[in-house]
Design goal:
Blueprint (H helix, E strand, L loop, with lengths): L8 H28 L6 H29 L10 E2 L3 E5 L5 E6 L6 E6 L6 E5 L1 H13 L3
Antiparallel strand pairs: 1-2, 2-3, 3-4, 4-5
Helix pairs in contact: 1-2, 2-3
């Protein structure tokens, strides 16, 4: 297992809280501007923009929930993942990588395992399943 010492559970929570807060402010600003400005943009376009921003709020919250769940698992707590944009990943060895990310739905997470030798394994798991599934992969490389 390759550990990246710059990442902590606290850092990950703070990052995703800031992410969620930033996008929520954008949603609030967008909604207030639409209410106060003469609407020259098609309402369908406005709805698409709002959905895009709300999806990022949901991904932020889903990621906070994910980090909390992983951190609370006794087998994972010492293996802090590194962070991509909204992806958490572990380098299990020089060729293998495990990653998990929020799909923006309250209870769905994308889990993928790339061994570098075979086709990437991936699945959609619930918040209740994710920590045990991640730990099962990590145990292969302990």
């Amino acid at each position: 297992m390759i550990i990246f010492p710059g990442f902590t559970w606290e850092y990950l929570i703070e990052f995703f809280e800031a992410w969620r807060t930033n996008y929520q402010k954008q949603v609030d600003t967008f909604e207030s501007e639409i209410d106060t400005v003469e609407n020259e943009v098609d309402t369908v376009e406005n709805e698409v923009i709002k959905q895009y921003l709300m999806r990022h709020v949901q991904i932020g919250q889903g990621s906070i929930d994910l980090v909390s769940k992983l951190r609370g698992h006794p087998g994972i707590e010492k293996y802090v993942p590194r962070r991509g944009m909204w992806l958490l990943s572990w380098s299990l060895d020089k060729d293998s990588e495990l990653s998990v990310q929020s799909l923006g739905n309250k209870d769905e997470y994308h889990l993928s395992f790339d061994s570098g030798k075979a086709e990437t394994e991936w699945s959609v798991v619930t918040l209740d399943e994710v920590a045990d599934r991640v730990y099962a992969y990590i145990r292969r490389f302990e």
